[in-house]
Amino acid sequence: TNRRLKGVVAQIPICFGNIAWWQGPTAEPTKTHKWTVFVRGCQNEDLSHFIKKVVFTLHSSFDKPKRATEKQPYQVTEYGWGEFEIIIKIYFVDPSERPVELFHLLKLFPLDGSAQVKKKAVVAEHYDEIVFHDPTESFYSKLKRYEVPEGSGIRIAPHHAVNYTSISLNEAKEAEKILAAKSKVKEEIEKLKKQYEEADEEITRIRNVLQEKGCLFDP
Fold first, then answer.
1. pLDDT class of 54 with cuts at 50, 70, 90
2. Please, what is the Cα angle at 46 between 88 and 158, to 5 degrees?
3. Is the overall model pTM greater than 0.90, yes or no?
4. Half-sphere exposure of residue 44, counting CA atoms within 13 Å on the CB side?
C-alpha cells in the first residue's frame, strides 16, 4: 500500500566507485585506461528490487556524457586518460522517494603511488548507506531484505570483476559502529512513538469519561 510508516527508518548499505585497467605503453594517448564506474550491493546482491535506474554523468568531453542504466549491473565502462568527478544519481522504484546523488572522483592510477601494471586493476570504491525515512508500506517490504541486522556485522565482498576492495577494514568497522548507533536511535524513536501513542489514547479515554459525566464541555 501507499500508507507511510511513520517513524520507520530503513538504512540500506551500498558500495560505489570505479575499477580501472592500464592498457600498457602502446595504448592510444586518449585511451590509456579502460575503466568501469558502478553502484553495487556490498555483497554484489541484486538491488533492482528498490532501485529503478542509475544515471552516471561523465565528463562533457565524452559522447553522450549522461548515461542511464535501468538494470543490473548498474555500471558504465569507457576508455580515457584523465581523472574527473562523476555524478551518480540513483532513482527508486517508489516515485515518491527523491533520487539520491553521489559524487565519485574517477581514479585511474595506483592509489599508493606505485608503478602501473597492465594486468593489475586499480580499485577505488566507498561504503555508504541510503537512508529512507517513513517509507511507504509497499516500498519498505522491498527494503527490508537489504537491511543489516544489528550485531550481524558489515561484510563487503569485492566487485565481481576483481578480487579485492579498496574499502579498508577500519572503514567497515566504523560503518558497523555507525549502523549500530543508528539502530539504537531508531529503537529509541520507536519507544517514544509508542509512549506518545499510549499517552494520546489515555488522554482521549479520560476526555470521554469526563464528557460522559458532564464534567467537560466542548467549546
1. very high
2. 75
3. no
4. 9
